[in-house]
Amino acid sequence: MWIAPIVVLIPLLCGLSNASPDLGLDISIDYVTQNNPNVLSSANMVGSATSDLQGAIGGYQVSRLNGSTSLIASGEALVSLVGNITLNVNDVLRNISIVASNRQNAPSCMFGSMNATIDRAFVAIDQAGALITLIKTSTSSQNSGALTSWMQMIQTAMTDISTYLDTLYKEVAAVMAAGTLSASTVSANIKPATLFNLAGSISVVTTAEKGLTTTVRSIRSAFEQASNVLNSYSNDMTNALNSVNNTQRDYYNQVVSRINSYQGKVSWEAGWGVNDIVNTVSRVNPFMQDSVTRTTALQLNSSISTTNIAIQTNANIWSTSLQTQMTLLYTGAEAFVQNNIKALVPVFDSSLFKLAATMSVGGTYASNCQSRYGGAIANLENNMRDQLQRCFNDYANTGYTDSFISEYNMVIREQTRTIANRINFCLNLGSTSSNSVIKAGIAKCLSETVIMNDALMKDVSIQTKLVVAMVNLESLATVQRVEACGAIMNHGLVAKATSLDTLLASCQTTNQ
Ligand SMILES: *[C@@H]1O[C@H](CO)[C@@H](O)[C@H](O)[C@H]1NC(C)=O
Ligand SMILES: *[C@@H]1O[C@H](CO)[C@@H](O)[C@H](O)[C@H]1NC(C)=O
Ligand SMILES: *[C@@H]1O[C@H](CO)[C@@H](O)[C@H](O)[C@H]1NC(C)=O
Ligand SMILES: *[C@@H]1O[C@H](CO)[C@@H](O)[C@H](O)[C@H]1NC(C)=O
Ligand SMILES: *[C@@H]1O[C@H](CO)[C@@H](O)[C@H](O)[C@H]1NC(C)=O
Ligand SMILES: *[C@@H]1O[C@H](CO)[C@@H](O)[C@H](O)[C@H]1NC(C)=O
């Protein structure tokens, strides 16, 4: 698209020179620093053209938000384009301004030092096409069309400038070759047309830059508008996700404290049960000494130890299973919630990125569509947050397991009381000084108690397994309830996001 011309400035030795005002010659020349048009005043427009363009881009921070990949590339390209014009292209005009009026060096040196500047300007102009292509991906065709025209104007005018400079330098060299410097050698060798044309081409460049300033302003403002939209929604999304995680953390704490409280209750209950039974041992002691009751009393003594160990063991099994199960319940619910989020976020993002893209291309209806549907995207994020919270609180309430704890504690309480009562019942039948018939009855009663203890402990063990199984089932049911709740929420939100996409698309084309 852009073709750099070859600029031929005849190389001349840099010698000592007379301090000269115009084109390095010690003479005033028409249309260089005086009359209208003149090269100097045209070239001096570079100051305001540069500051206008810099003003249009100054302070523009290209924000690096998710979903703005092409917006980032386009924003950076816009900054580069302006930078290359205000620096590389405009350096040529600055050079011309100095050559037109300064007297620091011999003309050969002054013109010679412009060669590299012109080369850099054309490298920049060559690259402008690629930069405009990048900007195009995020801006309206109107804006990219305007960019292209301004750049074409600049390129054509710069080509002309380099041609006229070349001619001018040859004319200056001819003046110097003529020997005496005078108004007549100047008018014989330097054609006013060269200077008119040079001044005119310079004006085309600065005029195009003024036009470019307006286009750059409008592109920048659309890019910023899009970034603001993305930024505000990405903040909302971050807040929604953090809030879901806080709920999750609260839920985790709830589970942990529930586990601690359940474990405390069970160990308290088992402790009291064991205590009740142990308290009977001192009363059993005398019967262990008596010849009639000795055998069964000793059996009971050892049955009491076995029973107490069994109660503690079962309570521990229950406690451990409870901990494992409730932790699994938490991780199951957490995994489901996080999976939901993973599925939903890209759906919301896609609506959001479409909206941001609309804002950046600055379509006619962009701001209407933003005000109509922008809030709906924020609502989707907030709905996700609220509904996931509800799924946790309503369907994963660990309070549902409370009844299993009470039941289990009741089993322990009943069984241990039965044992203690039964032992006391046997011992209340008489004492070691009772007659042998009564003592035989006590002995029999104690041996039946031993059998009963075994039976009760088998029952406790079965009850423990049952309650553990019930907690397992309840945990599973809890996770399934959270899953079902999440799935319903998910479908609802995806459907809303999809219909929002449709509405947004139609808004973008029809403003409806
Ligand atoms: C100016 O640039 C051209 C093309 O790059 C080159 O041929 C010429 O020698 C250069 N002249 C000076 C004075 O450096
Ligand atoms: C951007 O996306 C990545 C990956 O999807 C995510 O980890 C990150 O949190 C997002 N950043 C913001 C600010 O949304
Ligand atoms: C000129 O554009 C190039 C990319 O084509 C970029 O890397 C460079 O930074 C720009 N120069 C300025 C001064 O902005
Ligand atoms: C032309 O501009 C370049 C880059 O700013 C500078 O190094 C050089 O001295 C300038 N030459 C003249 C004659 O102003
Ligand atoms: C939320 O918690 C999950 C783990 O449950 C973690 O992977 C994710 O990074 C957290 N998200 C935020 C936004 O903190
Ligand atoms: C009764 O049982 C306890 C605990 O097993 C034991 O330490 C104690 O020696 C037993 N008493 C007798 C008299 O065997």
Automatic annotation (TrEMBL):
<feature type="signal peptide">
    <location>
        <begin position="1"/>
        <end position="19"/>
    </location>
</feature>
<protein>
    <recommendedName>
        <fullName>Protein TsetseEP domain-containing protein</fullName>
    </recommendedName>
</protein>
<keyword id="KW-0732">Signal</keyword>
